[in-house]
């Protein structure tokens, strides 16, 4: 009997440390984001507040600057997960990709751009755009498609009722407007607020408010990766959900303090202004579930812009199982 007790104790001495090591194992996730923006505040909160760490994940973040580059990085295994507009998954599917790109967690649920006027306008009406020069976004991207969708909703034909400029690179649009090009411009934050603070432009409307809910930016992975790494995908989604709830509950000031290290060259006052603006218009999704209504709204916007290759069912490119599970628990 003593011999068996001794052997059992020795076995526990060996097994328990190994079990502890497995529980403390940290898994690295390579994440590619399409741009680096305050619009993605919940992601940076998840990193700053330790929500990924709590799930046993180490997230290596890379900014890939552009939808095409981000998707190429994902498809070539340069990233495990991509944060980019859902329209890119539709483009890839339409090209006949054998390994589908699946949207599994939503981060933002509205467009993130604003209409900026060169002149200060007290009571802006969309009809005032007629006959003006409008500095728009890149053809085929969500900002451009949402922009044209909103204009048409207000009875404006963007190709005949105004002079539409779309041949300027994304990074150079703000400087082009600041140097005198265009009467109006469609801009992301914090650029819009920075121009307003400088007196160069004035925010007169929100495309996000006008276009309604849409899966503007989502986390997506190749179907093969999700099949092989379901646990990691679930943990990742859980961390994002915790961050979304944290952002929902906290003030703009608290959120600003959390994400400020990500934007060292931006004034805290500007960051807080932008966070407050996005919170007020409901841009930050409160949970990671990409529902069918949002998915169909996305395709309606793409179709209106003439950029929808083919209509795709929600279940084909969206997996809500992880998001629904973490939201329930």
UniProtKB/TrEMBL annotation:
KW Signal (keyword) present: yes
Keyword Ribonucleoprotein: no
GO cellular component, one term: periplasmic space
Coiled coil: none
SUPFAM superfamilies according to UniProt: Periplasmic binding protein-like II
Keywords on record: Signal
Cell compartment(s), UniProt: Periplasm
Family classification: Belongs to the bacterial solute-binding protein SsuA/TauA family.
Name this polypeptide is given: ABC transporter substrate-binding protein
Originating species: Metabacillus sediminilitoris
